[in-house]
Amino acid sequence: GSNVLRMSSGIQIKPKTAVQKGKTPPPLPCSLEPGIKPQPKPSDKLNPKTVDPFGVYSRPSSAFASTYAKGGIPCRLVHGSVKHKLQWECLPETVPFDPLLVTLAEGLRETKHPYTFVAKEGFKELLLVEGATEKAIPLLPRLVPVLKATLAHADDEVFGRGLDALVQLSAVVGPSLNDHLKQLLTNLSRRLMEKKFREKVTVTLQKLEQYGGKATVAIIKSKIPTYCSVSS
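User: That's the sequence. What structure does it adopt?
Assistant: Structure tokens below.
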């Protein structure tokens, strides 16, 4: 009953196992309900080749990472030959904005792959769906504090993602953002003093004015007196 084949030369050959080295395991299914994952062998957590970043032994460092690991984000990263893209489990138009848009905004503060890509691209694509304006405006009281934390982050890439997300949100909700804008301007003013971000922050402020209307200029100047309106 031994699985070891004995050759005439005395060399022992073990039959090939079902899993071959070097092959990439199939991607985890993405669903709104957490799936049942196979339990790894205790020895697996000691072997770097078998460590699953979303496995049972992994301790997600944030709420977003935990939600993603459990399949609570209805999209996943697909590695393309030229660039990565998101694959949605269902049409983004059918996904409830509450709480997904807020969850994706929270994910903008992630610093590890694939969370960084999923959060940034997911937030962007969700705001592109038909009816996004009506769906996003009621979430502004919860979205703005999350974006504020993103813009206060010490990591430059996180701050950059926050700027992009703010412009995307402003383009969708327009003047509705004005009531919440002051919360965000302090962090923008601070980064405006840094040479490497001066141009990008300035462009962001101009976009906020473009999408928010004339009332936006007074709000921006109340926190950043040196701001020059694009219409002046």
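The beta strands are 5-6, 12-13, 75-78, 85-88.
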